[in-house]
Design goal:
By secondary structure, the chain is mainly beta. It is 0% helix and 47% strand. It has strands at residues 13-20, 33-34, 37-39, 41-47, 60-65, 76-81, 91-98, 104-106, 109-116, 135-142, 149-155, 161-162, 169-173, 178-186, 193-197, 203-209, 213-218, 227-234, 243-252, 256-260, 266-267, 271-279, 291-296, 304-306, 310-314, 319-328, 335-344. The protein is rod-shaped.
């Protein structure tokens, strides 16, 4: 007599990688790029062998850092177990999901993720440990997460950049001066920036502006509350916020206006010349011009408008005469000032004759 042993048909387990827990980079020009974080891998196993796999078996997924232009550095950064506790009969279509426990925190770099599944039945030695068909591999690249930002600056009266950093206000600038707004940005979409003016008049100055640029402005407004300028740029895909912005406010010294009457008292019936003085004497080019309105003693209630800061009046009565000068510019609030003089009665002019 003689005898032999017949061992069970071995299973042949294969694995596949179904998903990776990291947030994927949305940049369409990059493949398999993810942001730093704790990596876990979800996968599935299937039995393509002639025999069933029963009981609990263990597989690992490994993280190998890949060095550019060199063979992979076989440095296992972490291993985690898989567990299937029920029998897996031979069926090449019956994929069974497995979820490794735990994870590995990955920083910037390239890694090979390897998910393997293979276990023979009890008493059968492993014969295909190096069979790569039982492992699924994936190269992933951990890239920097976008950090969008934009910084808007403005020059002062001396053409010096001011207000570095977010927000800010530039005080005490001259009326009618020329200033330059400029901005730089990081991680924003090309030609996605919009430059706007808020106070005192809302309007879009530039749209579809590039990521870095400059724009000239003129402080031609009669305002004390200031001009606010804002730049808003759209963030690149994968950014934590859809857009970033920065703003600056420039406060302008209003023009000044004063008026004066003749130093000497006028006489009833004489011309009285009222004179205004404006600083600066004219608006910047393209901003329109000043207008003047005179209101005062013996004038119509609506006042009298003149194109220049001078008005000649003639009074028919003596006494104290007052005058208000109102200065206006296109679309701006008026400024006013007042002055006064006295008009004395006309002197007699006596003549004699010998009767």
């Amino acid at each position: 007599s003689c005898e032999t042993r017949v061992r069970p048909a071995p299973p042949n387990l294969s694995a596949r990688i179904d998903s990776i827990s990291l947030q994927q980079d949305d940049d369409p020009t990059t493949d398999d790029a993810y942001y730093p974080g704790v990596l876990t891998v979800s996968g599935s196993v299937v039995n393509r062998g002639p025999g069933a796999a029963s009981g609990s078996f263990t597989s690992v997924y490994e993280y190998w850092q890949v060095l550019q232009n060199t063979p992979p550095l076989r440095e296992t950064l972490g291993t985690r177990g898989l567990s299937v506790t029920t029998e897996m009969p031979p069926d090449a279509r019956a994929w069974r999901s497995v979820l490794p426990s735990g994870g590995v925190d990955l920083g910037l770099g390239s890694y090979k993720v390897r998910l393997c599944a293979n276990r023979p039945p009890p008493g059968v030695p492993e014969t295909d440990r190096s069979d790569r068909s039982n492992c699924a591999e994936k190269i992933i690249h951990i890239v920097r997460r976008p950090a969008p930002s934009v910084d808007l600056t403005i020059t002062d009266d001396n053409n010096v950049d001011q207000l570095q950093g977010p927000g800010g206000a530039l005080q005490g600038q001259s009326f009618g001066g020329a200033h330059r707004l400029s901005w730089i940005s990081t991680d924003v979409r090309p030609n996605s920036c919009t430059l706007t003016q808020g106070m005192p008049e809302s309007r879009v100055l530039l749209s579809g502006a590039p990521e870095e640029n400059a724009a000239g402005i003129s402080t031609d407004g009669l305002v004390s509350s200031g001009y606010t300028y804002s730049i808003t740029c759209q963030s690149v895909p994968g950014s934590p916020v859809p857009a970033v912005s920065d703003s600056v406010t420039i406060y302008i010294n209003n023009p000044s206006v004063s008026c004066r009457a003749p130093e000497e008292e006028a006489v009833v019936g004489d011309d009285v010349v009222w004179t205004g003085t404006v600083t600066p004497p004219a608006l910047p080019a393209g901003s329109g011009s000043y207008s003047f309105r005179w209101k005062g003693t013996d004038l119509p209630s609506a006042g009298i408008s003149t194109p220049n800061p001078s008005y000649t009046a003639r009074y028919g009565s003596a006494g104290r005469k007052t005058m208000e000068l109102r200065l206006s510019a296109p679309g701006r609030f008026p400024l006013s000032t007042s002055c006064e003089t006295r008009v004395r009665p006309a002197p007699p002019n006596l003549s004699a004759r010998i009767d």
